Amino acid sequence: MKVDLFDFELPAERIALRPAVPRDSARMLVLADGRTKDRQVSDLPACLRAGDMLVFNDTRVIPAQLDGTRGEARIGATLHKREGPRRWRAFIRNGRRLSHGDRIDFADGVFATALDREDDGSWALEFGGVDPVELLLNRAGRMPLPPYIAARRTPDAQDADDYQTMFASDPGAVAAPTAALHFTPGLMETLDAAGIGHTTLTLHVGAGTFLPVKADDTSHHRMHAEWGRISQATADRLNAVRSAGGRVIAVGTTSLRVIESATGEDGVIGPFDGDTAIFITPGYRFRGIDGLLTNFHLPRSTLFMLVSALMGLERMKAAYAHAVAADYRFYSYGDASLLLP
């Protein structure tokens, strides 16, 4: 499909620079039963049914942005995928100043060696020293806010809390699974009381999620692989929910992509442990999920293509036009949409 089909007008002032307070006071556009309703995230228990299951991504964002030098040259690195105990794939700012074997010095004595370069411009970095890389990043790195936020304000200490979900427990992401940012302990208690269950899986979100689609046709776009995991116990729970007539509702496109990667043609969800580069566009047949809670996405992005595959392109364009006109807040710190096809 032509990428231009997924374009729409979005005024810059619709991009949220801070999350709603409290988190579950964010607005929620509900698309269900052929209708569109304006609600709040705190209304979610009333929008679902007893027996439904919410699936959260438990990845934790790491301080994946680093500033350093190679000689006199300033080098910026955004880690996006772990490739070994001390090796990370990274997008490099000023990468033309790097060669294989160059040492990059970051803050507080942290350093890495540049190894191979991919066609997409990313480099493999091998971190030196003996301390675990997680400790090195805590010393030298900073929270990797999305570029559409970082370009408009300086990241600060508040983002260290705002940009983590309440489910974050498995470090490895360089971007938050932002749909889950809306949840609070109080909302989870209300969902539990309504008979709406929840479980977790893992997808370590990479910086490739922010890369623009440069191809003119979706068939020419290459997705970056991300590592995910679904345990056998979680797969069994999800299959049992559907067998009993409940719905599996992915919280965020990251959860959705792992579930769909783990689901066979027969609709049975299996355990999963590995990379996924699944690219969902209109025409895709969903096998493992029955609904999605997600934020509002960028024009021409792979994520807007995904929600268009779930609900239909024209319906999503109309929904986004309504959201713009009604002053919904977009992107990572913005409002939510509940999509029930």
UniProtKB/TrEMBL annotation:
EC number: 2.4.99.17
Residue ranges of coiled coil: none
Subcellular location: Cytoplasm
Alphabetically ordered keywords of this record: Cytoplasm, Isomerase, Queuosine biosynthesis, S-adenosyl-L-methionine, Transferase
Pathway(s) served: tRNA modification; tRNA-queuosine biosynthesis
Family matches, as InterPro entries: QueA (IPR003699), QueA_dom1 (IPR042118), QueA_dom2 (IPR042119), QueA_sf (IPR036100)
Any GO CC annotation of this UniProt entry: cytoplasm
Molecular-function annotations in GO: S-adenosylmethionine:tRNA ribosyltransferase-isomerase activity
GO biological process: tRNA queuosine(34) biosynthetic process
Catalytic activity field: 7-aminomethyl-7-carbaguanosine(34) in tRNA + S-adenosyl-L-methionine = epoxyqueuosine(34) in tRNA + adenine + L-methionine + 2 H(+)
Pfam families xrefs: Queuosine_synth
Similarity annotation: Belongs to the QueA family.
Role summary: Transfers and isomerizes the ribose moiety from AdoMet to the 7-aminomethyl group of 7-deazaguanine (preQ1-tRNA) to give epoxyqueuosine (oQ-tRNA).
Quaternary structure (record): Monomer.
Record-given protein name: S-adenosylmethionine:tRNA ribosyltransferase-isomerase
Species name: Sphingomonas gellani
Protein encoded by which gene: queA
